[in-house]
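Sanity check

After download, print the first record. It should look like this:
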Amino acid sequence: MRKAILLPLCGILLAACSTVALTGRKQLNLVSESEILSASLTEYQSYMKTAKLSTDAAATQRVKTIAQRIAAAAEAYLKATGQEADLQNYSWEFNLVNDNQLNAFCMPGGKIVVYTGMVALAGAGSEGDSELAAVIGHEVGHAIAKHGQERASQQMLTSLGSQILGAATAGKSQQVQQAVAVAYGMGTQYGALLPFSRKHELEADYIGIVLATVAGYDANAAINLWQKMQAASTTSTPEFASTHPSSDKRISELQKNIPAVKATYGKK
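Expected structure tokens:
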């Protein structure tokens, strides 16, 4: 029974593998692009119905200008990596939302939202612009690396894995089945899903500094930004139980990657 389930599953997983062009990492995509785009647009439209747009015209224009440059860099990236066909999936939209949270996001399809709290943290001037470019580049990095699609695929695989384990333990006592379910839940939570989210974050950090550099911003500002984020953090969740890498980890990875990124993608 187990073999009958696992063999088709292996075939599905092999067929659903793709590669993140800029980093070369293999990823799983069981969910179609159209499904992700449709679901993302629905969520975005629902969010925007209640979001309070900033009334600061100058700050809004600043964010839109930076976001437009990052979007242009993302389109150049897609063309350069043979993903030009994906351009049809992007309908860029840029918004500054009046919210003090230190946050920003880019939905699959190119809907970018930055919170005023993040703008305040970045500060003014060219350094602040570069820090905002790092933030927006990071969020666009999630989108063009199809992390949302991959995350949904992971959730599907987790559900399918539970079904496989259920079949494998059929006929066992109820206690054994419950014990396996609990163990599997812990295994996927701390052994697969959360670490993979950290991989996504670090990958988006990397793509973000590439996009910011291509757009003409200083990638070193990403380090300053995360130092500010670290200072502003009020949580101390251990990295192994967090969906995000620690600030120290992010900063060290940025420090390691920025020289090569600037040498490769900086203006000559």
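If your output differs, re-run the checksum step. Summary of this record's structure: The chain has one domain: 26-149+194-265.
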